């Protein structure tokens, strides 16, 4: 009898430990949508549709308990950037439903900009977005992935975007260690409404690779053509 009780107790402890491990391993995906005027997302419906498809597919891969955060980024402190979605997957908010809804919302961004419901923004503070969002994360122990939909040009009070493009300046060093262990994917890097430039694109990718290494980013990807991203 005692051996049976011991076995039951051990089994219960294993189940509790497994449930705890599952809870700790819940993943967080933070999606940043660049609303600067140079980014195709705000004006080109075909580009927005590609972004919507990628995000829909990524969210559908998530499990119950995983969390997705979607935020607008651009000029630091812009009022539109307070418009933020924070959703935890559940039986009522299943990944396939959340993915479809967010995909539809993202696909509609050019229309919202054209109607004046959303504003394009004059510059892009990517670093501020990353550092602010990472502040409450613990990427060393809880998996988290950033996906930025952006041309990759940091143009803010921290650095002149033209200097980055021309190779005359580097991205400022990270001001926090909170990003260590986080994954970062930049989709659309080096792609502008005015067209792409291979030299500038490669320069931006190199700059972000260097920054990601300094920040302690776990896995870094920079994908110029969003439709090429498989996740």
List keywords for this structure.
231 residues, alpha/beta, Rossmann fold, six-stranded mixed sheet, 7 helices, 39% helix
Q: Care to describe what's here?
A:
This protein is of the alpha/beta class and 231 residues long. Helices cover 39% and strands 15% of the residues. The protein has helices at residues 2-24, 45-60, 95-107, 109-114, 126-134, 161-165, 198-215; strands at residues 28-34, 67-73, 84-88, 144-149, 183-187, 220-223. Strands 3-2-1-4-5-6 form a 6-stranded mixed beta sheet, covered by helices on one side. 39% of the residues are buried.
Task: Quickly describe the structure.
The protein has 231 residues and is an alpha/beta fold. It contains 7 helices and 6 strands. Strand 4, helix 6 and strand 5 form a beta-alpha-beta unit.
Order of helices and strands: HEHEEHHHEHEHE
| Overall 3D shape | globular
Number of strands: 6
Assembly annotation: single chain
CATH class, please?
Answer: Alpha Beta
Across the major sheet, the strand order is 3-2-1-4-5-6
Instruction: Tell me the number of helical segments per DSSP (H or I, 4 or more residues long).
Output: 7
Cα radius of gyration in angstroms: 20 Å
Question: Based on the structure given, which CATH architecture is correct?
Answer: 3-Layer(aba) Sandwich
Task: Tell me the strand percentage band.
Answer: 5-15%
């Amino acid at each position: 009898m005692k051996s049976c009780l011991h076995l039951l107790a051990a089994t219960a402890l294993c189940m509790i430990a497994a449930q705890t491990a599952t809870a700790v391993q819940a993943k967080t995906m933070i999606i940043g949508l660049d609303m600067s005027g140079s980014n195709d997302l705000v004006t080109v419906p075909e580009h927005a549709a590609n972004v919507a498809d990628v995000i829909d597919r990524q969210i559908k891969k998530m499990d119950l308990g995983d969390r997705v955060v979607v935020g607008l980024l651009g000029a630091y402190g812009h009022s539109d950037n307070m418009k933020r979605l924070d959703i935890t997957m559940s039986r009522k908010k299943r990944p396939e439903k959340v993915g479809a809804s967010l995909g539809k919302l993202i696909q509609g961004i050019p229309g919202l900009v054209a109607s004046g419901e959303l504003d394009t923004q004059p510059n892009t503070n990517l670093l501020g977005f990353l550092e602010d969002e990472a502040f409450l994360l613990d990427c060393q122990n809880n998996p988290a992935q950033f996906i930025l939909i952006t041309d990759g040009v940091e143009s803010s009070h921290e650095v002149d975007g033209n200097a980055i493009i021309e190779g005359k300046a580097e991205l400022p060093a990270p001001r926090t260690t909170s990003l260590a262990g986080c994954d970062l994917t930049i989709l659309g890097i080096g792609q502008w409404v005015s067209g792409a430039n291979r030299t500038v694109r490669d320069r931006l990718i190199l700059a972000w690779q260097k920054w990601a290494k300094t920040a302690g980013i776990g896995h870094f990807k920079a994908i110029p053509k969003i439709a090429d991203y498989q996740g």
